Amino acid sequence: MKKMITAAAAFAALSLSSFTTFADEVNVYSFRQPFLIEPIMEKFTAQSGIKVNILFAKKGLIERVKREGALSPADLVLTTDISRLMKLTDQGLTQPVDSKVLSENIPAQYRDPGQHWFALTTRVRNIYSSSERIGPAADISYLDLAGPEFKGKICTRSGKHPYNVSLVASVIAHEGEADAKVWLEGLKANLARKPQGNDRAQVKAVKDGLCDYALGNNYYLGKMLADPKQVSWAEAVDINFPDQKTNGSHVNVSGVVLAKYAPNKENAVKLMEFLSDDTAQQMYAEVNYEYPVKESVQPSKLVASWGTFKADPLPLAEIAKQHEAAVKLLDEVKFDL
Amino acid sequence: MCALLVKQLSCFYQHNQVLNLLDLKLEKNEIVCLLGESGCGKTTLLRAVAGLQKRLSGSIEINGKTVNDSGINITPEKRKVGLIFQDYALFPHLNVFDNVAFSLNKLTALEKKERVNDVLSLVQLSDYAERFPHQLSGGQQQRIAIARALAYQPDLMLLDEPFSNLDHHVRFQLIREIRSLLKARSMSALFVTHSKEEGFAFADKIALMQAGKIVQIDSAQVLYQRPKSMYVADFMGQSNYLNVSVNDDYSYQSDLGLLTSNTLIRHKKDQELSLLLRPEQIVIELDQQSSAEVLEVEFLGAYQQITVSYLNKIYIVKHSNHLHNSMQFNIGDRVSLKVLSHDFVVFES
Amino acid sequence: MISKFNLYKLLPWAVTCIIITPILALIISAFSIDNSGSFQHLIDTVLIDYTFNTLLLILGVICLSFVLALPAAWFVACCEFPSRTVLQWAFMLPLAIPPYIVAIVYTDFLDFSGPVQQFLRSFMGWQQASDYYFPDIRTISGAVIVLSLTLYPYLYLLLRSAFLGQSGGLFQAARTLGLSPWSAFWRVSLPLSRSAIAVGLSLIAMETLGDFATVNYFAVSTLTTAVYDTWLELGSLTTAAKVSSFMLLGLVILITLENYSRRKQKIYQRSGATHTELRFVLQGWKKWGALSFSWGLLFAAFILPLCVLFYYAFHYFSESLNESLWQYTVNSLWLAVIVAFLALLVALIVNFYQRLSPGPLAKTCIRFTSLGYAVPGTVVAIGVLIPFTNIDLWLNQLLVEFGFSRVGLLFSGTLFILVTGYLVRFSAIAVGSIDSSLAQVSPSLDLASRTLGQNASQTIRRVNLPLIKKGLLSAFILVFIEAMKELPTALLLRPFNFETLATYVYQFVSDEMIEYAALPALLIVLMGLVPFIVVNRLLEKAS
Known about the structure:
Number of strands of chain A: 9
Largest interface: A-C, 59 and 66 residues
Radius of gyration of chain A: 22 Å
CATH superfamily of the largest domain in chain A: Periplasmic binding protein-like II
Strand content of chain C: under 5%
Distance between the termini of chain A: 53 Å
Oligomer: heterotrimer
Distance between the termini of chain C: 40 Å
Number of domains of chain A: 2
Radius of gyration of chain C: 24 Å
């Protein structure tokens, strides 16, 4: 009994020790990975003196904020994928931010008209083609991939990954659900193997000769080129911007929202502004090869070398609306099975 | 004041009445054996006395102290009873000394040592204090268990088939030892067994149980010779039942002739009765004229046990091998049977 | 006196409540109104495939684990051959490696550009993938193999002690009745170990059911996938909870069956206590067969993955090493020790409740505290969040009403909730382990102690606890190792700036960067091995 009480006391002490808070700090729930976010936050702390506490997770953070309600310590939620930003907004977990800096830095199509969410970077869903067997395919479109000539030639990651869901959602938004379904069935029939791995793994599969085409976000190519082990994979493919003659390439975003019950609102807005400004935008571009939203900040040299492209002008919100339909469609055609 | 007084004790277990309004009384310094077939409730009674049985009605008193009654259920550790088990229940993680000293945690080290040495010498295992239970034989383990219980100085000793895991030779030696040990310490004890031989050797009195009740309690001799029912008679030893009818106030008519009773017969004339005959109460002799025939002969050392068929009935008879006129019987021999005169026990059919 | 009595009755229920509330919260949300139609959507589309995959996976893992663990346990317990004494503890080592690490190691090793296929290509002169057939590891069979390799020790552990506990005389008796050693094994030794097999396999089935990382890596869609999809992508907690409840139902059936089979078994265990050292001395081809099976298994399940990790850790040592790694190790250790200790406490409380007042109530406690193991970590995390955030909100509201300032998320924002989440998941292991070791303590020892003037708590302290020391230690280690490996619960429930080795490894694993994950992954394995070896030493010394 005595032992139990001691243990309970020790445990309570331990629990509370992690609970102490500082006045000058800001709390971030991040879907984005530490290797990218941590250096940016270090810069912010160095500049402002505000301590940044981060919780990284790839799943369930939205549910956690929701559960924590008015007591949530989260000030900001950082995430990729427009549908997550919209979900946070739609579920009433955010509050609007009226900041001149933000509206100056971020072009109107990349922020919520109601000022709840703000995109920080954009990324393209590219189609990679084998340099050896195919060569550059400048005119390729997403819809082509369902054609019979691509049979057994395509690799992709799980259809349920947000990047693919978002692509499917954009096809639904453009073509309607019925046509999108036909397209998705065709795409599934053309897959060289069951969807698996991440975007890099698809490029690797092209290099290994398992398939000729792979779906992948643009920044992965940059990261592979920077990795001595993976550079040979990257060199085996050409990067193509799809749908240049039609709708334009599908573009997704990463972004940030201010939590509804943010306890450190002032600091949080400072951090949001910092993220939209030159230093952070530059880092996003250089460290992770994403396209900065701030127009005055240039993409990295490598990314710039891929040339300019036409992005799909359809408002992101329209695509995000089709998110649920896309997930259901993926189930209907049993894309991953 | 008696060592144990059980009144109207009943116990239900999964819809079966295991104990049925049972009464039992144990005098000071008396050893009583609870004898019965398995399932008759004897272990339940023992557990009830030890305080390990739930859902009881009735009352139990130990040494004048009520331990069970309506609203009263004293926990086992406050009853001051010693319990001895079939599997010895020595603590395998403790050596002999610590096992025996288990209940003495309130004594000083010196007192403890004294008490342990005292009981260990009583069971003649003083040299084994450092051993662990698995290093001892079964008999030694049970003696340690007794020593452990004695060290606690209980008011009443309860023994649950303590000898059944031991082989025959060790068993009866240990029974004698422990009996004299308990007697020397003036200890009252309740002893459960299904073996009547153990009961005969160990107990002052035997309480025979049947279906949750004690059907007869008395000395072994009385139970054997003057059983109150056929059940008791059969349980205590081999029995032949002779169909008899009352002839007059002092005799019965039977297949084996006219039987003369030493005492007045209370049944009325011509009433049909069963008369108990122990095998040794029948005299057997070779007789070529008789129609009784030997069916089977078993040589059992001191005597022969002979199965005889006579007038479509089977009789079991014992014939001593050590009398001057002892005979050897063979299967097929013609024999005559005669009843020895004794205090007859009869049952109404 | 009265308060003490109440405490003794209340404690097990309080503990059970803490463990079961998160699961109940899930079940309740399964019945709440849901207009999204997600569940109907699942039924219409993929639910049957997912269910089929799940059943196939569980069946496959159970069968393969059985095939691996049975010979391993039999060789070590009943035969004599070189290296037996090393193998008897080495067979448990694979427990220390997280399955997702093994999955990545094997994928890295066996895929097109891995060393195996490279060697085959250069050896056979093949040029590209289409020139030859090589089995794809990222399939359901791959998942079955990897999960079995990491989970078989649970069955091995139980089977070995079951074999050791059996009287050799029974086996000999069967031989004299004309049975060959082979059929004596099948007809006597194996049926006698039925309860061990049932418990071991149900632990393995539960772990498989709760796994997400491995199957997801192998691109196998199971019911867990459905839970994640409906909840995270379709935003329907109700549907996710429905699927989880559906899985739980299957589990409850499983546990009930297992308990039923064990109830019959109890008689055997009590009377078959004698253990004789009658080992077969293996010779000739049998010896080589046993040796190659044992070391082959150990190589595949432990040595090879460990070597690959060592290789990467060595080559990327300077890149992987940083000062935070020490902090993460300390965090992991701390957390695992606390969780193991508390899980042990939970297990002791409910098990002694059962021992002191056996009956359906106590059995319910034991079953309830065992449920969480089969629930995927993320689902447990949400289950834990539901009640504790509510308690926090309520507490703060109360404080404000009485004029105090808010205390924030006292439960759900601290390590408290993380530890609780772990407990919900891992209590089952401790409960089961202590249940089986307590079952081997003869009840007459308790009675002897009680009649020697010791009350219930003295009896527990002086008789029961010393006798189940071994079970306590192994329960502690098993929970400790599980807690070291646990990922999804940690990811979602941890407080700010709190990183464990597992969450740190995950950063790289999620990007399939095994080379950077190797060093921290190795630390997880080593941290798990240390207490394991220490305790093994202690136990060997004791016996």
